[in-house]
Specification:
Blueprint: H1 4-12, H2 18-25, H3 28-41, E1 47-51, H4 57-63, E2 68-73, H5 76-87, E3 95-99, E4 113-116, H6 128-143, E5 149-151, E6 154-164, E7 167-168, E8 171-172, E9 177-179, E10 188-190, E11 195-201, E12 209-217, E13 222-238, E14 243-248, E15 251-262, E16 267-275, H7 280-286, E17 288-292, H8 294-303
């Protein structure tokens, strides 16, 4: 009999099919960004922990410089995959693949870097925030401070008003869509600029409750029928160069229940809330949009 967490895992990413992990190996942006960040952050002789190891590829990157890597994976299929792949790759012997739940596991010794790639757009579905916050509490209780470096170090999330085409060969279907970044989609019209609604710094306490209420300026007239959610993962901060190594998730476009006609120059009030690790429909159902008069908005701001 599955317990509540195991049942939830089947829906929230921890037990995603093996072939999905194989597809992630073919995501060049993801692979190159993580390899670069791990090469920068993991120093020779470091001890590394990866929570949610999948195929073991990120642990493999870490093992090229680390003296020991603990790779924790809950899905037994992926445990077998990781052990198989690491056995045929250089320095794979430095990686110990541990079949355990990332919610409960602690390494037998302090570690220098913790890698946790349980990342979904908007921090939805997968349990990265909850896993890291739980880990911090248990780690400090056993080993004391300081905390290890977390990868990603931070996450920046933004929302953008758009007009999205939902015609599929004459079949109208307003569905959730995931789009590659850096690609121009003819059926997508950006009505305004993205607005940052949350910045998570994993070296600090992170709240699992996310809420936003703010204004966006409409730059192009059209039908507001969707919100695009953007998630940039700051994998490493390169202090010597005052830059970062980032990985941008696919864009997630959520259709709105009530489309809204907007004009260039309109001020759009947007509000939504959800829990990190929650479902996509929970965010979708909470989105509220309203066109407001700029003069009214200015008076409200003056008295706030």
């Amino acid at each position: 009999m599955l317990n509540e967490r195991e049942i939830e895992s089947c829906y929230l990413g921890q037990f995603i099919p093996v072939h999905y992990h194989h597809n992630m190996l073919m995501d060049q942006n993801r692979m190159h960004s993580f390899k670069s960040a791990i090469h920068y952050s993991v120093f020779p002789g470091a001890k590394v922990l990866e929570l949610g190891g999948g195929t073991g590829v990120l642990s493999f990157f870490a093992a090229q410089q680390a003296s020991k890597v603990y790779c924790v994976e809950y899905n037994p299929d992926m445990v077998r995959e990781a052990r198989k792949f690491l056995a045929i790759n250089p320095n794979g012997h430095k990686v110990e693949v541990v079949h355990a739940d990332a919610f409960d596991y602690l390494p037998p010794e302090p570690v220098d870097v913790v890698i946790c790639e349980m990342i979904h757009v908007g921090m939805l579905r997968e349990k990265q925030v909850e896993v890291i916050e739980s880990f911090k509490r248990r780690y400090l209780a056993r080993f004391g401070g300081p905390l290890p470096l977390f990868m990603p170090e931070a996450v920046i999330m933004a929302a953008q008003p758009i007009q999205q085409e939902y015609d599929f060969e004459g079949f109208y279907a307003p569905i959730v869509q995931f789009q590659e970044t850096g690609v121009v989609y003819p059926g997508t019209l950006e009505l305004g600029q993205p607005a940052v609604y949350s910045i998570m710094d994993f070296q600090q306490p992170v709240d699992t409750q996310i809420a936003y209420e703010g204004s966006m300026v409409i730059e192009k007239s059209g039908t507001l029928n969707a919100m695009r959610f953007i998630t940039k993962n700051v994998l490493a901060v390169v202090q010597e160069q005052s830059t970062t190594i980032d990985w941008l998730n696919h864009y997630m476009t959520l259709p709105l229940a009530q489309p809204l006609q907007v004009q260039a120059g309109d001020l759009l009030r947007v509000a939504f809330q959800y829990r990190a690790g929650g479902s996509i429909p929970s965010l979708q159902a909470s989105i509220q949009t309203q066109v407001v008069n700029r003069e009214v908005e200015a008076r409200v701001a003056a008295y706030a």
